[in-house]
From TrEMBL:
<feature type="domain" description="Thiopeptide-type bacteriocin biosynthesis">
    <location>
        <begin position="761"/>
        <end position="1010"/>
    </location>
</feature>
<dbReference type="InterPro" id="IPR023809">
    <property type="entry name" value="Thiopep_bacteriocin_synth_dom"/>
</dbReference>
<dbReference type="Pfam" id="PF04738">
    <property type="entry name" value="Lant_dehydr_N"/>
</dbReference>
<dbReference type="Pfam" id="PF14028">
    <property type="entry name" value="Lant_dehydr_C"/>
</dbReference>
<dbReference type="InterPro" id="IPR006827">
    <property type="entry name" value="Lant_deHydtase_N"/>
</dbReference>
<protein>
    <submittedName>
        <fullName>Thiopeptide-type bacteriocin biosynthesis protein</fullName>
    </submittedName>
</protein>
<feature type="domain" description="Lantibiotic dehydratase N-terminal">
    <location>
        <begin position="47"/>
        <end position="692"/>
    </location>
</feature>
Amino acid sequence: MYRFVDAALLRTAAYPSTLALPPAPGPVDAPEYLEEWKVWINQVWSQPFVAEAVELASPGLARQLDSLRAGEEHLPKSVRRAAASLYRYVLRLRHRATPFGMFAGIASTEFGPRMSLRWGEEHRLTAGAEAHWLAAMIARLESCRELLMRLPVVVDSTCFVRGERLVLPCARASHESRLVPGEVSVRHTPAVRRVVASAASPVTAGDVVETLAVDYPALPAGAIEELLENLVAHGMLVTSLHPPMTKDDALGHVLDQLDAIQAHDIPSAEPHVKLLRHVQAMLAAHDEASPSQQRMLRADLGQSMRSHGSTAPLVTCDLRLDCTLTLPTTVAREAERTAGVLARLSPYPSGPPAWREYHARFLTHYGPGAMVPLRDVTDPNRGLGLPGGYRGSLHERPTRSLTRRDEQLLALAQRAACEGNREVVLTDDMVADLESHDADRPPSHIDLRFCLHASSSDALDNGDFTLVASGMAPAAGATAGRFLPLLAPHDRGRMAAAYARLPTLSESAVQAQLSSPPLHPHTDNVSRAPAVWPTVVSLSEHREDPDPALGLEDLAVTADDTGLYLVVLETGRIVEPAALTTVDFATFTHPLARFLCELPRARTAAVGPFTWGAAARLPFVPRIRYHRSILTPATWTITAEDLAPSSAAFAHWHESLRRWRERFGAPATVHLGDDDRRLRLFLDDPADASLLRTELNRTGHARIREAPEPGASEWFDDRPHEITLALATTLPPTPANTHAPTHQVAPLSPDHEHVPGVSPWACLTLHCHPQHMSEVLTRLQEAVEVWPVSPSWWFVRQSDQLHLRFHLPRPHDFASLAQQAGMWATELRQHGLAGRMRWDTDVPETGRYGQGDTLHAAYDVFIADSTAALAQIALSSTGTVHPQVLAAASLVDMAISLTGGTATGTRWFIDHPPNPATARTPRQLHHEARKLADPNDTFAALRHLPGSDRVTAAWRERRHTLGVYRDLLIPKHELGPRSVLPSLLHAHHLRALGVDEDGEKLCYQLARSAALTWAARNEGAHS
């Protein structure tokens, strides 16, 4: 299912091999150990590596620890807090591989026949200006009016007009605070409207002012400039100072832009420009300096930057390790197998529930093949809005129900607990049993993170290792992307080339890189990644002409029955964006950016770390092993109520923890917390156990996972590590001709929708029981004939709703129609045949059935098919013919009429065998279908049935409308008759028999049986 590509990265702790730290003296929160903790702080803080690493990570804590070591007095509570913070950093330093300052770094990794490792101590630390500080500096520069007038500006691409206001739907958190991002709006005055029009593409703010001065001569120049300042401050105008997220040197970009406008000669801006130049020079000197000099340079940098009034973190650093690692190819092969089985065991093999629901809503609202501009489809008023669970979405996340997979895993976990087993070994048969039979495609590429347990390099070479999966990212490069600039040029080029060759889900699709600023400025530090694909999709950014990118206005959404697709409006070509970052989509990413990345993968398997589903709530779930891999560690959920109360003496509480571990079989060495925030604890140690008690006191519960015992990774000197490996699917892309749009469709806009009273079309939904629908439709057919305004109409059944479409001679005839339909519905309610009714906007399915004259011809088919379905209902009710046999014959007639010949129509059923129905089809029905659905002599068997005149007349009219529709389809090359046929057949089944998946399969089987019989007699061909 997956193959590895030449893009692997090592992440590991960077502590010196000679580092020796004293053990912790006791519980961190115990007052009686206060003096011992002071001694411990002095001993640990005297270690240069620890002090430097913590100083870089938390300057405030470092200053407090310096003060404690100097003998200054502090409150006991303050000392305990400082000790706990330092102890957490020590645990992180020794046991966590996530890159962070000097604590852990990265190195490129390759694969070969045997393992080789070189570990040195000359690691290279690369420094940069902290993003929050840089955002504050940009804001100060933008507040200099003279400088702002020289800067190019552009409207934020997510802005839109709602009523009388210009709206920025999800403005970034302010650079001055960590407030939650949210909507910002201003009055959409004529002046604001002119600004938006002028700055649709980059233009200097001064030019915009001049344009407004000409258009509004009565406005003072100062007022116009103030208007632009406010729009910039609110984020509605983006200046060129804001670097796109594909620029890895953000400070360099800012200075380049300042140089381009000669900002140094503006007195109010000159101090800021000078400081930025100074910081840039010191950062460059830092990266070339020795480790001992780097610490002094960072201290000087901090003084320079802090003197400018900022209290935010000032410098960020990334570490490239002095390490070269080659792993045996057997490790990569095991990673491939692990990724494949995780994809097979996905709890959502057809995509997350929210996206499945969104896909269904798109098909219902627009129809397959419709190409809807991205802005329109995501607008909650004009379109569908955003999927459930998204920031700002009006839709709830779909409720999760208990699945067959949940039941199986609950049984698996319960059995392991009862038998006292900490591990379950999955066999291939067990995987096949857990795997969903409705699985769709896996993502086209992913990142897999794992660590390796092996006793030695020889053991690793001999395949004697355990691969422990620790995480997944939904796109290859997401984990490594931000580190590419750190790598040596040949490694960077090798990995970028590997990413450039990654497959797409759809044939001929374009792989694109999403570039969009996160919602909090400080998150920029871990979000920047250079462009590795030629195509970039940009959101809320300022990009100049030499740096082209696709924007929201360039994109549309379309769909077919298998998935959703992002397409370029101009060409219809499919685009598959991915973000080279692991920043959490739900919390830190603009919802539209999340939408762009998730939409192409909406109906692929939701691949990630193994999840227990409903069983995750159990107090214990076992380790899951598959071949040489651990898919998930054994996990325990512990609550404060499981142990002695927090008010108890620590020794008593610690003893209750020991008894709980003994009762539940929990080990002493565990991980507390999730992913990159986890701490490795040794619960026999009072200091480590006290951190667990703190967590239980804070939240009332904690989840602990087994952690590797000391010596598990002796092949790597037992150093904590993770390997990040990019993997690409081995499945071929889906052929382009299976996707919608298979034809060029004009983008849909709200104007194409039919509003009752304004359009001659009116849409009515009537709620009624499925068993009553045939009677309701019969009554409607009789009622319409005597209404003052006699509309043409058609219907579709959907579960407990009847969807009725009326076509009126004139739009204003709707008043009469509404009155007559209301009286009819009231009568139905009085007879207990119907419930609520509502008029609604009608959205033509242009993607499914065509546009213009072609669509109107399709409407004629719907009307004729509705008449045919009603005639079939009437004939079936007499008991003369089985309703499904009659429906099967009707399907055959439709296929022949639309494809233009008996041979082509029957061949379609032969070439498209349906999935088998749940129940076995009675032989008698096949016999009846082969007779009744025989198209010879224009369905002679049907014509000879008593009372069939109405059906044959309706079919005759339908054949005529299908012929007209076919003739319009073919010369315009809009849609092929064969591509429309499945939709027409499905709609006919809904009209004639209603929603019944197995019943529909049965009808197709009967139609195919008749087609095979006809072909055998007339062509001598079997399928």
